[in-house]
């Protein structure tokens, strides 16, 4: 049977190549994701292998609140700790580090490097025993000197001796470049280094360090850590260098793990779609070779042998598709790497994992998809070889209809349970329900296709005459095949539609939120991670036309024992700027007050006048009284803490934005504000329209990104339409020959095949768009209380997708139609 398998592969090269394309595209996504993340992990390992390699012990503040780097995540280490550490036996070269945000302004007045969602812009104190070596120049001395990394200097066309503007949280400062450091591959991170006193003044506060690092002199890291820990105050801790590096690597590993999972989800979607194509292709190949397989049975081949022959073909297709997909995945990884800017400057890293998973996924998916057609092939009776009208046995649709109906009803029930507020996270039952409905509709697609295709094919039948009627009949001839072909397109378009419905709803929700909750005239926001300095607030307040400028702080704490985010600032300004609606109490917070929204008060059983223990990032706990309860406000969030309490427990307050009230929000006032901030390229003036525009831009970018990832599944579906039509043309060779013999022209024949393709594509698109709208609406309702308050259906976009589906149908039919039109009439008629 091995010879039979090889002969069949050689005889059906074109058909199997088309099948392999679906495997190639799916495997390419898997391989590309794994190669890309392996490459990025290797780069991170190289970076962290350089950072802190000589550190034996690091002293830092205990992380009371597990937070992201929000500028106030940890307390600084006082200089007295450095003095105490120096007297410990075994400590070598202890030094205090200062870290924070600093950026260099280019000659064009813009910050060098990506300001938002890009690599970090790190300001630090210069340490001669640190992680970086001077490439040229010398170390900084005094408040007017700075060292920058060579790549940043190159981008800004700066050199040693040039004066640059450096931005931290305060005003931009002209400083002289006295040295350049070679950071190696730091993934695009910019480095700006000052001498220690300057770094303390600009990035932290005088007399304090972000951490203290030291080497070991003749003892192990663990023993030195224990010695150092004995002299530390209660809010400080000592960790070994190995622990410090492991913590940093674990944070990055978590990010890369999420990114890998995120991309692999889309890879699995593509593979799932490809499985439909493979199943469809092998079903048609087996059906076309029914008589051949029956002859094998007649001359003595057993059922297992026939099954193995077909499975052998699937294995061959899987191996070829996986091999080519692995190579294509390397190309995809290289493309992804080019989008990482400086972070993607090194070559790709190849490990065994992408190879193993590529072949495992490609071969297993192909074999599983071909298994059921192979089983049907083995059931062909030997006597069938003697008949001219032999056909593959078809199971009744009754079991399929019953199971599909059950899954659809159960899925709809779960969606209803989630939307009805059955407790917990409503998105979970809605998501599971949507998946079950998806599978149920896919199983019911053969039944749905009959009436729908009749309606969709009616215009073609009316406008094109006989070719149109035959096209509709061809689509109706085998509902299973039509449904399987359309289902592949349905899956991709359903997901794309759901993403677009969610995106449109997010845009509409943000617009409604800004209209309802943005009461300030302007908002001054930073474009990077540095926040806004207090000096800037004073300048804004003094600008012409400005009545009040109020800082808005964001931070984290343990509130009643649980990690929570909160905001702080002038409560009256916050209330006015967010159009806050008080339910009870007031906004007078004083020194120890706190406001919460009514949902939080109800869930935590907090009452007006009660007290709640709050542990701040400095480790100290202060009881705060509930001074006010307000209606839910997405802009403000669930908790507002007294500005006095926040400042008392924060060493380096981080102003997230500035709320500005003016006498008249006119062009003159805005011009005055922009003029005041002209030397601050890291700050921007935002009004209500700009807030909406920025939010829409972010949502559009995210929706576009997801849509691009999902387009792979649509491409695979388009390949499936080509495959089905091509095999259908081969299957109907004799029929086409007879049509040509009785007078149908090549042009009419091609029009018939194109019409059939368009009908199938539009059927799949209608199913997908309908399901996508339903899923998107269900998810919006499930997330209604989480800020997604408005449902919006992007009708224009969905209409465009329907047109795209029709175009896919036209393009998919080009080669099969061309092939059908070139058939020799006499040879076609004589085909058995």
Helices and strands, with pairings:
Elements: H1 2-11, H2 13-50, E1 57-61, E2 77-78, H3 79-86, E3 91-97, E4 99-101, E5 103-105, E6 121-125, E7 133-137, E8 145-149, H4 150-156, E9 163-167, E10 173-182, E11 190-194, H5 196-203, E12 208-209, E13 211-216, H6 221-229, E14 236-240, H7 241-288, H8 290-298, H9 303-338, H10 352-378, H11 398-419, H12 427-464, H13 466-477, H14 479-517, E15 522-526, H15 534-541, E16 546-559, E17 562-569, H16 571-577, E18 582-585, E19 593-597, H17 598-604, E20 611-615, E21 621-630, E22 639-642, H18 643-648, E23 655-662, H19 667-676, E24 683-686, H20 688-731, H21 733-741, H22 746-782, H23 795-821, H24 825-830
Parallel strand pairs: 6-11, 8-10, 17-22, 19-21
Antiparallel strand pairs: 1-13, 1-14, 2-12, 3-13, 4-6, 5-9, 7-10, 8-11, 9-10, 15-23, 15-24, 16-17, 16-20, 16-23, 18-21, 19-22, 20-21
Helix pairs in contact: 1-9, 2-7, 2-9, 2-10, 2-20, 7-10, 7-14, 7-20, 9-10, 11-12, 12-13, 12-14, 12-22, 13-22, 14-20, 14-22, 14-23, 20-23, 22-23
Please give a quick description of this structure:
The chain has 832 residues and is an alpha+beta fold.
Radius of gyration: 33 Å
- Residue stretches low in confidence (pLDDT < 50, at least 5 long) are 67-73
Structural class: alpha+beta
In helices, the fraction of residues equals 55-70%
Count of domains: 4
Number of strands: 24
Shape: elongated
Number of helices: 24
Report the portion of residues in β strands. Answer: 15-25%
Distance between the termini: 24 Å
Largest sheet: 8 strands, mixed
**Mean of all residue-level pLDDT scores:** 83
């Amino acid at each position: 049977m091995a010879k039979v398998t090889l002969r069949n592969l050689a005889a059906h090269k074109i058909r199997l190549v088309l099948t392999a394309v679906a495997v190639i595209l799916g495997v390419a996504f898997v391989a590309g994701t794994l190669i890309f993340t392996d490459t990025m992990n290797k780069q991170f390992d190289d970076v962290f292998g350089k950072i802190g390699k000589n550190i034996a012990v690091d002293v830092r503040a205990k992380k009371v609140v597990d937070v992201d780097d929000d500028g106030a995540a940890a307390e600084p280490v006082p200089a007295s700790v450095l003095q105490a550490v120096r007297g410990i036996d075994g400590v070598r070269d202890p030094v205090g580090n200062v870290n924070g945000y600093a950026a260099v302004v280019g000659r064009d007045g813009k910050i060098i490097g990506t300001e938002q969602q890009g690599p970090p812009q790190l300001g630090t104190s210069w340490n001669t025993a640190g992680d970086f070596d001077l490439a040229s120049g010398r170390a900084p001395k005094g408040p007017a000197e700075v060292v920058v990394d060579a790549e940043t200097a190159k981008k800004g066309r700066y050199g040693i001796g040039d004066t640059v503007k450096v931005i931290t949280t305060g005003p931009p400062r002209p400083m002289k470049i006295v040295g350049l450091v070679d950071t190696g591959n730091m993934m695009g991170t910019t480095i700006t280094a000052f001498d220690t006193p300057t770094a303390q003044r600009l990035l932290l506060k005088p007399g304090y360090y972000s951490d203290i690092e030291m080497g070991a002199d003749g003892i192990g890291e663990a023993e030195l850590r224990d010695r150092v820990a004995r002299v530390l105050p209660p809010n400080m801790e000592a960790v070994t260098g190995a622990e410090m590096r492991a913590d940093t690597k674990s944070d990055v590993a978590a990010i890369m793990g999420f990114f890998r999972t995120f991309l692999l989800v889309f890879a699995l979607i593509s593979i799932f779609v490809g499985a439909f194509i493979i199943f469809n292709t092998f079903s048609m190949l087996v059906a076309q070779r029914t008589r051949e397989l029956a002859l094998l049975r007649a001359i003595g081949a057993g059922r297992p042998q026939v099954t193995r022959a077909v499975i052998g073909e699937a294995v061959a297709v899987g191996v070829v598709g996986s091999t080519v997909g692995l190579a294509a995945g390397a190309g995809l990884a290289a493309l992804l790497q080019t989008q990482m800017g400086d972070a993607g400057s090194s070559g790709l890293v190849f490990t065994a994992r992408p190879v193993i998973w590529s072949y495992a996924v490609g071969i297993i998916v192909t074999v599983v998809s071909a298994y059921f057609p192979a089983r049907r092939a083995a059931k062909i009776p030997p006597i069938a070889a003697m008949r001219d009208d032999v056909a593959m046995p078809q199971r009744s649709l009754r079991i399929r209809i019953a199971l599909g109906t059950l899954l659809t009803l159960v899925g709809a029930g779960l969606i209803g349970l989630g939307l009805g507020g059955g407790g917990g996270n409503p998105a979970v039952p809605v998501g599971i329900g949507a998946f079950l409905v998806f599978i149920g509709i896919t199983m019911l697609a053969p039944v749905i296709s009959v009436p729908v295709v009749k309606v969709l094919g009616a215009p073609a039948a009316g406008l094109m005459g006989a070719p149109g009627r035959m096209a509709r009949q061809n689509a109706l001839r085998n509902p299973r095949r039509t449904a399987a072909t359309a289902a592949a397109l349905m899956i991709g378009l359903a997901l794309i539609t759901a993403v677009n419905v969610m995106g449109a709803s997010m845009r509409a929700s943000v617009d409604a939120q800004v209209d309802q909750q943005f009461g300030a005239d302007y908002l001054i926001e930073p474009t990077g991670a540095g926040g806004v300095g207090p000096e800037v607030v004073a300048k804004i307040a003094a600008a012409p036309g400005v009545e009040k400028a109020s800082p808005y702080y964001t931070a984290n704490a343990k509130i009643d024992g649980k990690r929570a985010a909160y905001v702080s600032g002038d409560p009256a300004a916050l209330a006015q700027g967010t159009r806050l609606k008080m339910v009870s109490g007031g906004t007078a917070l004083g020194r120890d007050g706190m406001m919460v929204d009514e949902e939080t008060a109800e869930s935590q059983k907090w009452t007006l006048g009660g007290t709640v223990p709050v542990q701040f990032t400095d480790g100290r706990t202060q009881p705060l009284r509930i001074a006010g309860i307000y209606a839910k406000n997405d802009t403000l969030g669930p908790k507002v803490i007294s500005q006095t309490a926040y400042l008392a427990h924060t060493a380096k307050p981080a102003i997230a934005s500035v709320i500005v009230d003016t006498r008249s929000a006119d062009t003159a006032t805005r011009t005055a504000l922009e003029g005041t901030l002209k030397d601050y390229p890291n700050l921007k003036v935002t009004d209500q329209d700009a807030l909406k525009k920025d939010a829409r831009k972010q949502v559009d970018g995210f929706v576009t990104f997801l849509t691009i990832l999902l387009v792979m599944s649509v491409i695979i579906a388009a390949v499936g339409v080509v495959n089905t039509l091509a095999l259908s043309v081969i299957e109907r060779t004799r029929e086409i020959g007879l049509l040509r013999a009785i007078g149908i022209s090549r042009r009419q024949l091609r029009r018939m095949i194109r019409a059939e393709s368009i009908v199938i594509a539009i059927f799949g698109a209608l199913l997908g768009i309908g399901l996508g709208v339903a899923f998107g609406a269900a998810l919006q309702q499930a997330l209604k209380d989480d800020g997604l308050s408005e449902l919006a259906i992007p009708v224009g976009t969905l209409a465009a997708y329907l047109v795209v589906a029709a175009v896919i149908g036209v393009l998919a039919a080009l080669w099969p139609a061309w092939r059908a039109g070139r058939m020799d009439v006499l040879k076609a008629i004589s085909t058995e």
